Amino acid sequence: MLRWLLILFALIATPAAAQLAPRENSIKPELVAEGPAVPGGEVELAILMHTKPGWHGYWINPGDAGLPMKIDWQLPEGASLAPLRFPVPDRLLVAGIVNYVYERDHAVLTRLKVPADAKGMLPIRASAQWLACTDKVCVPERGEFALDIPVGGSSASQRARFDEWRRALPRPLVSPAKFAIKGDQIEIAIPLPESVEIGEPYFFPSDDGPIDYAAPQSFRRSDDMLVAELKRRRGEPASLSGVLALGDGRGLEIKAVPGNVPEGGSRIGDRGFDAVLLAILGALVGGLLLNLMPCVFPILALKALHLARSGGNEREARRDALAYAAGAVIGTGLLGTALLAIRAGGSAAGWAFQLQDPRTTIVLLLLAVAITLNLLRAFELPVLAGEHSPGGSFGTGALAAFVATPCAGPFLGAALGTALLLPIYGSVAVFAALGLGLAIPFLIIAFMPALRTRLPQPGAWMVRLQRFLAIPMAATAVGCLWLLYRQAGVIGLVAGILAVVVLALLLIWTGTRQRNGAPAGWAALAAVLILTAGAALLVPRQHAAEARVPIGTEVWSEAAVAKYRAEGWPVFVYFTADWCLTCKANEAAAIEREAVRDAFDKAGVKVLVGDWTNGDPAITRFLEGRGRAGVPLYLWYASGNAEAEELPQILTPAMLTDRALRPR
């Protein structure tokens, strides 16, 4: 249905668009010949599709939705073209729909049969129609391309480029594949020696109909057979054809006929229980480490002080800890569920997606200011320091979950990236495990009497400690103001400062009434909520922040990386965001150190920066391709054709200088 709607839209929109002012195509074709035309021989042609960042075109089978390219050729008499040969496509999930696409420049190859009597110049002309899409909009485009190929002459002048494009094509499988229909499943047995390395295989069917695109695919090895297990959508095909992607851009062109498919074998790429368990363990450890972050540690310390004030009552301490853990678990679980819902809606989003919106930033700013004033004892915040109350402790846990989201420190990057690839139950379990990791220290204190009884007794030292804890919380507030300026410009910064001033005056007034014994709770809460909602509504919604590029670096793009690698330069890529505390710490402590800059300059290292502050979709998709849900991510490409080395999420200057100074 979606495909027919797109076809209807293209038929209607294309003539209408021709009557409007011309727009620049987002995908531009260019016709290239490998060399001169030899009379009676053949010459390879390439339709090079130049694709703007953020846009994509479609494979011969576009998947659940989309349109393949259509070309009308005008050839000299006696000339003919072989069928088009397409490179291995990519998968793109938009609003729960699986598309088979190309998200970067790619070349479609064909062979031209040259007439035996050709001489002079051989004119090749073509007009084409295609669909260019982003994650949110599709535009039918059309264009013409032409090439005059000299007849005779020297050898192929474009052989190096064509060799590269030919490597991107799927290779024909010599031995025939067999397939069998078993209930609602189609199994394809593909002859493939065990010595062939396989990353994450995927079968792209050439024909629409038999295969359910959205269903997961599983694979198993049975001796020298790779068996694909695919969900059947409809019909009983007489044959099957498609491309088996092996990972790293490699692919095999498959043609399968009915036959026997072996049983048994070992599973490949199974993201089942083991993957869920490892991701949950990583989220637990990562959540535990988040307690050391400057915006989370004060909250944990306040809860510990709360326990100290309680006098060690075991029942109340355990009830308090369980409520705090429930708030943290449900808080991270809800954030993760919201992330999955946004991604299912077609948006490219990752962990900490909410901080890519200035409205959320101003809410976090006001929270940080309120906690800072509470630590300075300007007023008492019941959620943090009131009587033992399950509701208050639950709110504290949820608050800790919210303020911890700018971080994706050690263990969390891979765990959260895996979570986005798991079934829904596994994804939610990983996000909930992150909240449990946040709550572990408080649970240990509450459920281990030996630790709880060793907590120091209440006294004047607690006031001094609270004032000390106000320092990192105030720094968090300043960071939020800076981030607000980056996201919403001067207007956003002014709105944030005014909201902070009004909130501070309101909370100081509340604290004065609290110390005088006058009730102010509900009135103050209503005023704070109105202020927060008003500030969030008034702050500009547009993203004003441009990609931050420090001196001596360049904006990251896959094309830039490929260019420098082809030229033989070592490349260091780091992905960052203004709201990522781990990123900023690594940049200050390692990346932007003078010794590192000198080593990079000496070795000719090209440094590329991917700024994810506003959720760049191209960066989001690249992170997903690396199995990551957020930043930071650090990649080192040694000179030559070596694959990227993923560096730890906590950097030291030596990690970078040692790699820069290695002999080439």
From TrEMBL:
<feature type="domain" description="Thiol:disulfide interchange protein DsbD N-terminal">
    <location>
        <begin position="30"/>
        <end position="146"/>
    </location>
</feature>
<keyword id="KW-0472">Membrane</keyword>
<feature type="transmembrane region" description="Helical">
    <location>
        <begin position="424"/>
        <end position="447"/>
    </location>
</feature>
<dbReference type="Pfam" id="PF13899">
    <property type="entry name" value="Thioredoxin_7"/>
</dbReference>
<feature type="transmembrane region" description="Helical">
    <location>
        <begin position="276"/>
        <end position="300"/>
    </location>
</feature>
<keyword id="KW-1133">Transmembrane helix</keyword>
<feature type="transmembrane region" description="Helical">
    <location>
        <begin position="521"/>
        <end position="539"/>
    </location>
</feature>
<dbReference type="InterPro" id="IPR035671">
    <property type="entry name" value="DsbD_gamma"/>
</dbReference>
<dbReference type="Pfam" id="PF11412">
    <property type="entry name" value="DsbD_N"/>
</dbReference>
<dbReference type="InterPro" id="IPR003834">
    <property type="entry name" value="Cyt_c_assmbl_TM_dom"/>
</dbReference>
<keyword id="KW-0732">Signal</keyword>
<dbReference type="Pfam" id="PF02683">
    <property type="entry name" value="DsbD_TM"/>
</dbReference>
<feature type="domain" description="Cytochrome C biogenesis protein transmembrane">
    <location>
        <begin position="278"/>
        <end position="478"/>
    </location>
</feature>
<feature type="transmembrane region" description="Helical">
    <location>
        <begin position="391"/>
        <end position="412"/>
    </location>
</feature>
<feature type="transmembrane region" description="Helical">
    <location>
        <begin position="321"/>
        <end position="342"/>
    </location>
</feature>
<feature type="transmembrane region" description="Helical">
    <location>
        <begin position="491"/>
        <end position="509"/>
    </location>
</feature>
<feature type="transmembrane region" description="Helical">
    <location>
        <begin position="468"/>
        <end position="485"/>
    </location>
</feature>
<dbReference type="InterPro" id="IPR036249">
    <property type="entry name" value="Thioredoxin-like_sf"/>
</dbReference>
<protein>
    <submittedName>
        <fullName>Thioredoxin family protein</fullName>
    </submittedName>
</protein>
<feature type="signal peptide">
    <location>
        <begin position="1"/>
        <end position="20"/>
    </location>
</feature>
<dbReference type="InterPro" id="IPR028250">
    <property type="entry name" value="DsbDN"/>
</dbReference>
<keyword id="KW-0812">Transmembrane</keyword>
<keyword id="KW-0201">Cytochrome c-type biogenesis</keyword>
<feature type="transmembrane region" description="Helical">
    <location>
        <begin position="362"/>
        <end position="379"/>
    </location>
</feature>
